[in-house]
Design brief:
2 copies of one chain form a homodimer. Chain A is of the alpha+beta class. Chain A folds into 2 domains: 16-179, Ribosomal Protein S5, domain 2 (2-Layer Sandwich); 186-320, GHMP kinase, C-terminal domain (Alpha-Beta Plaits, 2-Layer Sandwich), CATH 3.30.70. Helix content of chain A is 34%, strand content 24%. Chain A contains 8 helices and 13 strands. In chain A, strands 1, 4, 5, 6, 7, 8 and 9 form a 7-stranded mixed sheet that branches. A 4-stranded antiparallel sheet of chain A has the order 11-12-10-13. Chain A has a two-stranded antiparallel sheet with strand order 2-3. In chain A, β11 and β12 (298-303) form a beta hairpin. The model of chain A has no long low-confidence stretch (mean pLDDT 93). At the A-B interface, α5, α6 and α7 of A face α5, α6 and α7 of B.
Chain lengths: 325, 325
C-alpha cells in the first residue's frame, strides 16, 4: 500500500490550485509493472508530449465531501473513475475531513486511445502542488503523478520525456526527466479506428502479459535498447531511426500481448488496414511510421513536409504538432 | 550443401513410382531453422495431416531432360518452383544423364495457405522410394522429404505427427513419427481470406525472425512445452487443451514475426475479423479455436458436433475431416 503523503506545507493552502498537463504518446512503451501499488515499471520508457492536447485541472477546498467535475459534468462518486481519483486524493488530505472539488477538462476525446489518465493525474499532481504551494521540482511531481497512473509520470513535461524505471523498492528513483531537445518539424496523426472504451484496461493487460507470456522475458532488454536508439535519433534528428524504432517497439509490445493467455489483441480489422496502408506508402518513399498503444487506434509519426500526404490519405486524422505552440 | 544421396538400389528402377501424401497443419509450428541446407529446425513441431487433401505424384524415367507437370500443366523449367524441384531430384539421380518426368496433382488450391510444398515433397520422396524400390521406413522417408521442404517431414504420415528437431549436425535424428491416436470427431475448417501468393516466403520469414527478433529467444522453449500439452490433450481427448494450446502457439509464432525488422505481418483485416468472430463464438460457449500459418488464412479447429455452426457462421469454409476416409 501507498503511504499517506503530506507535503511540507499542507496548511494553509491557496484558495485554488490549477495546472495543465499534456497527453503523451510513448515512442518506447511502458508495459509491465514490478509493483502495482506504486506503479513501478519493469522497463524505462520514452514519450513525446502532445503540446496543447491534454488536461486542465483546478482544485479547491470543499465542504463535507469530494466533488469531481469532468468537462462541466458532475461525476457519480461511486463510479470506478471517481473512486480511483478519491483514493488518490486520500494521499494528500491534511486531515480526514478535508475535501476537494476537482474541475477537470480534457480537450481530446476521452478513451479514444489517448491516455486520459496520463495527462489527468499529471495535471492533478501539478494542481495539488499549486494549491498547497509545495514548489516541487519536476522529478517529485513526476513521482506524485506516477502514483495516480504510471504513464502520468511522463506527462509533467513537454517535448521528449524519459521515465527511468529506477531500482529502489520505494520508487523514489522511478521518475521522468525531460530530454531538452526541440524537433519543430515532428508531427503525429491520430487515426481513430474506434471510440469504444477498451474491455481490458492497461493494468489488467500488463498483469496478464507479465504472468503468462513466455516472450515477455525479452521485452525489458529490448526497451532499453530502443530507448538508446530513440535518444540517438533525437539528438541526430534522424527521423527514420526515430520512427523505425518506435514502430518496432510498439509491435514488440503487441507481440507480448498476443503471446498472453488468454491472448490480448487490441487490434481491429481497420487497425491492420492502417498498418498495411502506412507500409505501402513507406514503400513508395513517404517516410511514415506508426505507433500504437493498448487499443485499436493508430498514431502516425511523420515530418511537416508530408502533412499534405497524411491529410489526403487519412481524412479523419487529428494532426498534432508537439513542438508548435 | 547436401551430399548426393543414392539409395541402396538405384538401378534397376521400376517403370514408374507413385505416392500420395497428405497436406498437414501444424498445431505446434515449425518456425526457425538451425541449418537451411538440410532444413533442420530450431524447434520440434506437431501436426495434423489432412486426410485426403494433399498431393499425388508419379515419377518415371525421361530422356534428355527433366519434365515437370503440375495438374496436367507443363511447368517452365526455369521457374523457381521447377529449379528447386530439379535441384532436389539431383540428389537422387543414379547418373548425371538420368532424367525424370514428374506428374503431380494437388487436390487443394495451391498457395492458398495450405503448404503445397509439404505434401509435394513428401509425395515426391515416397514416389522415389516406390520408383527405386528402396523400401525405406517412415523415419527415412521423413528425412528425405525434409530435404525438400521442412514441413514435408511431417506429411509422410496420416493423423497426428511429431517432428523431432534432433540434435545431430547431419540431421539424421531430425525426422517425424506418427502419434498413433485416432480422434474421429476432430474437424478443421479452412477460411480462405486471400488466394494471393505471399510476398515473403517461409524460409525468408524464418531467417528474418531468427536474425532480428529479440522475442524469438523464448520461442523454442515455448514450442517444447506446447508439444507436451498437445500430446497430453491428444491422449486425454481434451479438446479445449488441444485447441487452446494450438491457438496460443500460432499467436506466439506470429508474435515473433511481428517483432522482426522489418516487421512481418501476414494478417489482413479479414484475418483479424475472423479471430474476433471465433473469440466471440467461444465466449458464447462454442468451442472453436484457430491456428494460422505464415499467411492470412485462418484454420478453425472444432469437433463434429459444432460443424453446423461453423458452416452457418463461415459460409466459404472448406471443412476437413482428418480421420475420416
Amino acid at each position: 500500500m501507498v503511504q499517506k503523503i503530506i507535503g511540507p506545507r499542507a496548511l494553509p493552502h491557496n484558495e485554488q490550485g490549477e495546472a495543465f498537463a499534456p497527453s503523451n504518446i510513448a515512442l518506447c512503451k511502458y508495459w509491465g509493472k514490478r509493483n502495482s501499488d506504486l506503479n513501478l515499471p519493469l522497463n524505462s520508457s520514452l514519450s513525446l508530449s502532445l503540446g496543447h492536447l491534454g488536461t486542465h485541472t483546478r482544485i479547491r477546498a470543499n465542504a463535507f465531501k469530494d466533488e469531481i467535475y469532468m468537462n462541466e459534468q458532475r461525476l457519480d462518486p461511486s463510479a470506478q473513475f471517481s473512486s480511483r481519483l478519491i483514493a488518490y486524493l486520500d494521499l494528500f488530505r491534511p486531515a480526514s475531513d478535508c475535501y476537494f472539488r476537482i474541475d477537470t477538462h480534457n480537450n481530446f476525446p476521452t478513451a479514444a486511445g489517448l491516455a486520459s489518465s496520463a495527462s489527468g493525474y499529471a495535471a492533478l499532481a501539478m494542481a495539488l502542488n499549486n494549491f498547497f504551494s509545495w514548489n516541487l521540482d519536476g522529478a517529485s511531481l513526476s513521482i506524485l503523478a506516477r502514483l495516480g497512473s504510471g504513464s502520468a509520470a511522463r506527462s509533467v513535461y513537454d517535448g521528449f520525456v524519459e521515465w527511468h524505471r529506477g531500482e529502489s523498492e520505494d520508487g523514489m528513483d522511478s521518475y521522468a526527466e525531460q530530454i531538452p531537445a526541440i524537433w519543430s518539424e515532428l508531427r503525429l496523426a491520430i487515426i481513430t479506428v474506434s471510440r469504444a472504451v477498451k474491455t481490458i484496461g492497461s493494468t489488467e493487460g500488463m498483469r496478464r502479459t507479465v504472468e503468462t507470456s513466455a516472450l515477455y522475458a525479452a521485452w525489458p532488454e529490448k526497451a532499453t535498447r530502443d530507448i538508446e536508439s530513440i535518444r540517438h535519433a533525437i539528438w541526430g534528428k534522424d527521423f527514420a531511426e526515430l520512427g523505425g524504432t518506435a514502430e518496432s517497439n510498439a509491435l514488440a509490445m503487441h507481440a507480448t500481448m498476443l503471446d498472453s493467455r488468454p491472448a490480448l489483441l487490441y487490434w481491429l480489422p481497420e487497425t491492420v488496414a492502417a498498418f498495411h496502408k502506412i507500409w505501402r506508402l513507406r514503400q513508395d518513399g513517404i517516410q511514415l511510421y506508426f505507433t500504437i498503444d493498448a487499443g485499436p487506434n493508430v498514431k502516425i509519426l511523420f515530418e511537416e513536409k508530408n502533412e499534405h500526404i497524411v491529410r489526403g490519405e487519412f481524412d479523419d486524422a487529428e494532426i498534432v504538432r508537439p513542438f508548435v505552440c
